[in-house]
Every structure is written in C-alpha cells, then in structure tokens.
Amino acid sequence: MNGSTGVPLCLLAAGVLSFVPAQTASADALPDQSRTVTTEDGWQLTVTKTAENLDRVPNLAETAFTREGFVSVRAAADITGAGGVSVNSGTLTLGYQIGCQIDVSNGISLGLAASVGPNVNVMVAPTPGLSVGIGAAALPSVSTTFKPGTITTIPFGTKALAGPHGSITTDQVQIKIDACMGPVSLRSYVIATTSTDTADNSVAVYGDPIWL
C-alpha cells in the first residue's frame, strides 16, 4: 500500500500504463508544402518541404515511456525575380517542433543523429548578387530538456545560401524521446531568409502534425 494515498502501487502502475500507446512499427508519408512571397525589394522568395516520411519503430530499450523513429525530409529555398537591391545573404533552416503530453521525469531527452552536408565557404556573385555560403550541419547527438505543455523547437541544420537555390536533405534521421507518457507529436518546419541593404525577409512552411 502507498502510505500517503492508500492506493496499491500495482493499481497506480496499471493506471499509468493504461495511458501508454502500444509500441508498433508503422510509417507515414506527409504531403509537400510550398510558399512564395514577394519581398519589398522585388524578389520572390520560395520555400518548400518535400519527401517527408516518418518510420516509427519499437524503441530498443523496450520501455513504456520512450518513443523512437526515423524521419526523412528535404527543404529547399529559391530566390527569383528582378529585385531592385542586391541580396547580401540568405539562409535555409530545417527542423522539427516536438511536444510531449505528460513528462514523467525532470525533463525529456531528445536524441538526434544526423550529418547534413560539408562545411565549406563559397563566394559567388550571381546577378544581381548573392554572397557567402556555408554548409549545413547537425551534430551527431543533440540533447535538450523540455516540460509538458510546451513546444520545443529542434533545428536539424541551417545552411547559408551560396546562390539563388539551396537545399538540405536528411534521410533516416533518428528521433528518440524518453520519459514521456501519452502522445508525442512532431511538426516539421522550413524557414528561408534573405537580407539586402534595405530589407530582411523570411518565409516559413510547416508540415502536418504527426504522432511518433
């Protein structure tokens, strides 16, 4: 018996486990998303998310409070049109927003495993000009702590554009969330930005929410 509540511990455990979904393997392909905006300088900035797929797997630890899966997704940014002011720089960011319904520890550990592209420095000058680029990289292991009732944003990588087109592609990136009871939801995001001498702009698209 639990001295403070008078409820048998076995019944408490059974009540907790009744909220835990079965750990089964399954997969979902998510629809593509795209948006285009015209900046104040006259450029057309397009951001797209394509080829997103989530493969859910039973977690290796076989615990009731761990979720594990593998995600694949491609992000792209395109700068077109005839703007009146040269683009000085631009970036493309790909990541996920993650939410857990009930935290059963002091926090939730989110593990990622990815390596996206080389780190390089490039100088280019397309008409009317777009400058420096650097490769996108996601660390082999990223850990964060977050509480229930909040949405945590985890970037997979940010790539500085070295021309009018850039992309980030991830294939079978592991996502593992520990100490979470109840549903775990994922939502991908892609953000493209540009900067000129007179204006900064950003465009974002989001994937459909999906459970892990």
From TrEMBL:
Keyword Iron appears in the UniProt entry: no
InterPro entries xref list: Leukocidin/porin_MspA_sf, Porin_fam_mycobact-type
Signal among keywords: yes
UniProt keywords, alphabetically: Signal
Cleaved signal peptide residues: 1-27
Domain of life: Bacteria
Protein name: MspA family porin
